[in-house]
Amino acid sequence: MKSLLRWSVRLGVVSSAVAGFLVSMVPNSIALPQEQIVQKLQQVPVFTVADENGSPLVASGDDDSQVTGVFMSQQDAQDFVGRLQEENPELGEQVQVVALSLGEIYQLEQQNQQNGEGLNFAYVPTEEQVNSAVSLLEQQGQQVEDFQGVPLFIARSSQDEGYLTVEQNGQQIIPLFFEKQQLRGMIEQFEQSQPEQANSVEIDVISLQGMVQTLEQEDDPQLEQVELVPSQESLEFIQSVQQQQQQQQ
After folding, report:
1. Cα gap 120→131, rounded to integer Å
2. Which residues contact 62 (CB under 8 A, 6 or more apart)?
3. Looking at domain 2-43+126-242, which of 3.40.1350.100, 3.40.30.10, 3.40.109.10, 2.130.10.10 is its CATH number?
4. What is the spatial distance between Cα 123 and Cα 69, in angstroms, rounded to a whole number?
5. Which of 18, 30, 75, 151 is deepest in the core (most CB within 10 A)?
6. Helices 8-16 & 232-248, crossing angle to 10 degrees?
């Protein structure tokens, strides 16, 4: 939990203070050391279902593989536990929602791959953001029935294909949002500050899994600018944890 608290102040800055904008050309590839990838993912809280000892609730597949769910929304995870308590009270009463960081999940995935263990993670995005991603792709002329993975939304200029960046602590970052609504808020501020470019900004959607794979495999230091911005629900969760820690102290 300390890893989440460490990012709480910074996330507040990213999500609200967007005084400086820049449209810049950034290549579509990057290769980062694993510790830097973990650091980028560490700021995002995710939620799993586990027993009181921390053992995750797993489902077994036909090939004997084991899968545990990783919810992007705490409310979705709580709703899942609620349904489980109704359908299987004995099991449902033994589990609870546990918060981790996306960086910790990534590290567990890497360890599982190295050790040849069979536990897999199934990421569960929010239905609202999946629908937003599908709608956006359809508007762009693509035929899609469903969006595979967790959607991330990013703004770019239709004039030069550069990504919209935000100035933070004297540096330009490229924010990737888990909620389309949050990105829309940033774009509206950009349009107010630079009305001459108001019609040039478009929204793209990519998958979280694809973004991580690109960070792992490609080679371009400029994409160190990429920063993940958690959903509003997740930001409120981080703030609540911080307040609880302060009260305890």
Report:
1. 25
2. none
3. 3.40.1350.100
4. 6
5. 151
6. 140
Write the pLDDT tens digit of every residue in 144-188.
Answer: 888 989 999 999 887 766 788 888 778 888 899 999 999 999 888
Give CA–CA dist 10/197, Å, rounded.
28
Q: pTM of this prediction?
A: 0.82
One-letter amino acid at 183 equals L
Domain 45-124 is in which class?
alpha beta
Cα–chain center distance at 224: 16
CA-CA distances (angstroms) from residue 160 to 19, 25, 220? 22, 7, 19
The string of pLDDT tens digits covering residues 96-120 is 999 999 999 999 988 887 777 667 8
